[in-house]
Amino acid sequence: MNMDSKADANVKQVVPFFGVSSMERSLRYYLDGLGFTMKHKWVVEGKVRWCWLELGGAALMLQEHLATPGHDSWVPAGKLGEGVSLCFQCQDALAIYYDARSRGIDASEPQVGNGMWVTGLSDPDGYRLCFESVTDVPEDTKLSEVKG
User: Are strands 85-89 and 111-113 parallel, antiparallel or unpaired?
Assistant: First the structure.
């Protein structure tokens, strides 16, 4: 099915929206740990309740949902982040790995999969984040195998 070119041109970006259990903890992780910047925010009584974060050309939104009744209340049926993965396509995933590790973030050792270096990590609520970049290094090679 072909989309009308007007509708196609109208859609500009998809931005994942994560419900988080602690905005303060998530902001430390994304801003201080991974280097995202906050572009937009909604503040209630001095506390960030929703925000739009960016890293390079990627963006995501976070919101700490209230468990108390109201228009923005929400209690998840399962564990936050379970089964959700984002794959960030990078110029250099190894640079992301080294930077994250230097900031105290536990990122997996990069390994080549599908022709790309891949390093993975999980945010405080269990959302899986993978950073990937194209390489000609052989499949299944670990970073430790090429650094020697």
Answer: unpaired
Q: How many domains does the chain have?
A: 1
Domain-located, residue 29: yes
Helix (H, G, I), strand (E, B) or coil at 62: strand
Alpha-carbon torsion (36, 41, 43, 46), positive or negative: positive
pLDDT of 95-139, one tens digit each? Answer: 999 999 999 999 999 999 999 999 999 999 999 999 999 999 999
Domain membership of residue 24 (yes or no) is yes
In sequence order, which ranges of 12-114 are alpha helices (DSSP H)? 23-27, 93-102
Instruction: Answer yes or no: is 62 within a domain.
Output: yes
State the number of CA atoms in the 13 A half-sphere of 61 facing the CB.
12
Burial class, 43, CB count within 10 angstroms (exposed 0-12 / middle 13-18 / buried 19+): exposed
What pTM was estimated for this model as a whole? 0.87
Report yes or no: 123 and 30 within 8 Å, Cβ to Cβ: yes
Q: How far apart are CA 39 and CA 17, in angstroms?
A: 14
